[in-house]
Amino acid sequence: MSFIPRINKVYKDVTFTNDEIRRYGRHLIMPEVTLEGQQKLKAARVIVIGTGGLGAPILAYLAAAGVGHIGVVDFDTVDLSNLHRQIIHKTGNVGKLKTQSAVELMKEINPLIDIKTYDTSLRSDNAFELLKDYDIVIDGTDNFPTRYLVNDACALLDKPNVYGSIFRFEGQATVFWASQGPCYRCLYPEPPEPGTVPSCAEGGVLGVLPGVMGTIQATEAVKLIIGQGDPLIGRLLLFDALKMKFKELKLRKDPKCPLCGTNKTITELIDYEFFCGVAPEQKKAVHIDEIDVEEVEAAIKSGKIPSEIELLDIREPFEAKIAQIPHSRLISLAEFSKRMHELDSAREIWLYCKDGARSGKAWKLLYDAGFRKIKNVAGGIDAWSEDIDPSTPRY
């Protein structure tokens, strides 16, 4: 029997052409799948949130497996920096919508499936409408507000949430299904403090890692559909690529969980940006004074940098070896607090990083320490490369 009740009710009406029988032949001869399992796959409706590192292998393998109805949610466009890990996108598709790029390859893999795209971000005001008609939700996102949103929406709709996350050489995967086991809030009751957990854009990720974890997520979705094996419900799978080791942790339902515990207090979707500490109201609490790269260029040409203005690069040393803005001094964010005493608060200080996020954190550290002649370079060295000096490598 399928783990998904709706599929178990409708799959028997599914038929196949001879070409489909040929295409899925290696499934059909598996005793755990057979024609019945393939019927369930064709009847299934799966929606994938994100077409990035995790979403790429998930979507490719779901299409190849013959999942009959796949929803694809993403608002972003393909960037050159995506291609080392997001294997569903091609070099020629840089600049295209990721949903469009993903569908192109999925249709090349399997033109027999139905794919519906949603060129939008998942939000509290659209989540129920987007997810309600699907059997399984797969979370391929990379930020905490959306992870909590996916979790809460799935719990309130009683849908399995196939979860994965990646960072550098490490990955996690599990299946959150509030009516069957723990949810994401049981594992992480509170989000981390803003800025304490770097994103993949800030910390990097091994290109092949999302291939491993995304494939595990796709495997879990197929198992749920065909009703075979032991899903990762109540089990968190940890992967360390450097050591090439898997480890499993047991997850237990938290009876005090506000979403799926005995005394539920969350009955509707909330403001997840605010919940995770990145709400516009909180951003406005301390206004970060920013300048653009054109002003930096003008200050360099006039000689104000470095004579009057100190330009600080707060990236890691290995990043500075890739490229630097001229006349800048390197103090990484990791050692920034320990080295602030080296800076002269009477001088004007401009800070930059890769894209402006980390230098914004350094700006706040200086501001809290009493510095006032400080500015953050909007867009960082990425903007410098794009708008000022195209010979500067982007990474």
Plain-language structure description:
- By secondary structure, this protein is an alpha/beta fold.
- The protein folds into two domains: 5-282, Rossmann fold (3-Layer(aba) Sandwich); 286-387, Oxidized Rhodanese, domain 1.
- The chain has 19 helices and 13 strands.
- The chain has helices spanning 5-10, 18-23, 25-28, 34-43, 55-65, 98-109, 127-131, 144-157, 184-187, 200-203, 209-226, 272-275, 280-283, 293-302, 304-307, 317-320, 336-339, 357-368, 380-387; strands at residues 45-49, 69-73, 114-118, 136-139, 161-167, 170-176, 235-240, 245-250, 290-291, 309-313, 328-330, 348-352, 374-377.
- The strands form two sheets. Strands 3-2-1-4-5-6-7-8 form an eight-stranded mixed beta sheet, with helices on both faces. A five-stranded parallel beta sheet has the order 9-13-12-10-11.
- Strand 1 (45-49), helix 5 and strand 2 (69-73) form a beta-alpha-beta unit.
- The relative contact order is 0.10.
Note the main attributes of this structure.
single chain; 395 residues; alpha/beta; Rossmann fold; Oxidized Rhodanese, domain 1; 8-stranded mixed β-sheet; 36% helix; elongated
How far apart the termini lie comes to 48 Å
- Extended strand count: 13
Number of DSSP helices? 19
Helix content class: 25-40%
Q: Indicate the CATH class of the largest domain.
A: Alpha Beta
CATH topology of the largest domain: Rossmann fold
From the coordinates shown, what is the CATH architecture of the largest domain? 3-Layer(aba) Sandwich
